[in-house]
């Protein structure tokens, strides 16, 4: 595999002519030396969702329905403002997620802008891989160095059953194209009982690490409060991988901050990774925050607590991130078997529930159990499900954590399944 290694791999690339409406001058303040939460964890990674659109209809994500546009995507200049704020706060790595990022035709423009940000040393992308073959070279030229591809089965029929799409050949071609473009590639597979957790299915996927120098990570299905999907029916513990591949040996260079526990197989060119958010939490070493496609900050992905960022300058975004990180919970509250029947989240693409105030405004809330989170923020209002919905005059203070234990909402699962890894 071609490499452009090291955390300083991203080279600044400038467009032939800068846009007339650049969001902010390039003389912004230098990034902060480090961003730490109350548990002493250094927060260096930003997961940045650039769209909620996705042509797949994965059963654990949308109940088998493809996920169309429920609101306008943020324009590139606004995405860069948010990312610049994260860099100023101390983030050094950005991974673009969705939805499906390649639904955006302006994705290379966004990547080029991110590659120029001071302090950003690594740019990655998570994709379903269906359109990757045609885009891989341009993405790499723009600045992408790491690509995560979601692939839940090497069997075309099973993959269609899970995703609603017949696209195995396109995904495999995309993986090869990303490798040829010099990107590091990881495949993310969500374990699903009765569909891909049997030894034969795991062996078929593991064959990829003998053919290519890549990582294959198996991820436990996370609970979600959905009426149209049974977590208990489909949950398969990561132990299924160890049973299917008894020759796994722990990798010597395993990172302490990565969510995956990495293993090697004799003769393989790549590695097997195990991500167990349910049976073996990795919260103690979590170094991530998320910004959703509608500009909401989530210090913990597996939480409904959000902080609105739209309409802020990069300096204000940086301050909001620093304040919000102080509210990052020490660990998530997922438990195996906490499937949903409360009906608080609606299937079929309706905007998921969030913590709100009495006027149906999205609230920044946050207590980690050791004190209140004191945050002042502009409110983001969205009553119609589309558009930016900014209302800059409203302000909130001293939120408290009213979030119930148990399942995250379905937007958390859309963001997380197949996208949890670094």
Care to describe what's here?
The chain is α/β, with parallel strands linked by helices. The protein has ten helices and 14 strands. Helix 1 packs parallel to helix 2 and helix 1 crosses helix 9. The two termini are 19 Å apart. The N terminus is likely disordered.
SSE blueprint and pairings:
Blueprint: E1 45-49, H1 76-89, E2 93-97, H2 107-115, E3 122-127, H3 132-142, E4 146-150, H4 156-163, H5 168-180, E5 184-190, H6 199-211, E6 215-219, H7 231-234, H8 239-244, E7 249-250, E8 261-264, E9 271-275, E10 288-291, E11 296-298, E12 307-308, H9 314-325, E13 377-380, E14 390-396, H10 410-416
Helix pairs in contact: 1-2, 1-9, 3-5
Mean pLDDT value? 76
Give the overall form.
globular
Distance between the first and last residues' Cα: 19 Å
Tally of helical segments: 10
Trace the largest sheet across and list its strands. Answer: 7-8-9-6-5-4-3-2-1-10-11-12
Structural class: alpha/beta
Q: Percent of residues in beta strands?
A: 15-25%
The secondary-structure element order is: EHEHEHEHHEHEHHEEEEEEHEEH
The main sheet comes to:
12 strands, mixed
Task: Determine Rg (CA atoms, Å).
Answer: 20 Å
Helicity, as a percent range: 10-25%
Number of strands: 14
Unreliable spans: 1-27, 336-372, 376-419
């Amino acid at each position: 595999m071609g490499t452009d290694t090291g955390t300083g791999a991203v080279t600044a690339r400038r467009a032939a002519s800068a846009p007339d409406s650049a969001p902010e001058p390039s003389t912004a303040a230098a990034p902060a030396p480090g961003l730490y939460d109350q548990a002493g964890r250094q927060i260096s990674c930003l997961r940045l969702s650039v769209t909620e659109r996705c042509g797949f209809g994965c059963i654990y994500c949308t109940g088998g329905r493809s996920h169309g546009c429920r609101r306008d995507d943020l324009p590139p200049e606004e995405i860069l403002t948010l990312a610049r704020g994260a860099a100023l706060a101390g983030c050094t790595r950005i991974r673009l997620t969705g939805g499906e990022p390649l639904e955006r035709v302006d994705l290379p423009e966004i990547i080029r802008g991110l590659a120029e940000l001071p302090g950003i040393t690594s740019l990655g992308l998570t994709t379903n891989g269906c359109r990757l073959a045609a885009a891989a070279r341009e993405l790499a030229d723009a600045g992408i160095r790491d690509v995560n591809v979601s692939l839940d089965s090497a069997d075309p029929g099973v993959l269609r059953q899970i995703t609603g799409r017949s696209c195995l050949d396109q995904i495999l071609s995309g993986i090869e194209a990303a490798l040829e473009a010099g990107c590091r590639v990881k495949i993310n597979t969500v374990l699903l009982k009765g569909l891909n957790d049997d030894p034969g299915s795991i062996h078929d996927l593991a064959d990829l690490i003998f053919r290519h120098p890549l990582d294959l990570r198996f991820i436990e299905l996370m609970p979600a409060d959905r009426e149209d999907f049974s977590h208990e029916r489909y949950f398969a513990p990561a132990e299924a991988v160890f049973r299917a591949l008894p020759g796994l040996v722990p990798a010597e260079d395993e990172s302490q901050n990565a969510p995956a526990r990495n293993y090697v197989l004799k003769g393989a060119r790549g590695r097997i990774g195990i991500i167990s958010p349910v049976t073996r939490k990795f919260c103690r070493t979590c170094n991530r925050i998320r910004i959703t496609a509608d500009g909401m900050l989530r210090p913990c992905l597996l939480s409904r607590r959000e902080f609105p960022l739209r309409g802020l300058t990069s300096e204000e975004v940086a301050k909001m991130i620093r304040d919000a990180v102080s509210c990052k919970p020490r660990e998530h509250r997922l438990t195996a078997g906490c499937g949903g029947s409360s009906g608080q989240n609606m299937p079929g693409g309706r905007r998921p529930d969030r913590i709100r105030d009495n006027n149906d405004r999205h609230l920044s809330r946050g207590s980690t159990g050791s004190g209140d989170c004191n945050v002042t923020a502009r409110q983001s209002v969205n009553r119609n499900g589309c558009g930016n919905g900014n209302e800059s005059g409203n302000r909130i203070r001293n939120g408290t954590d009213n979030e119930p234990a148990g399942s995250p909402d379905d937007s958390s699962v859309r963001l997380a399944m197949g996208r949890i890894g670094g």
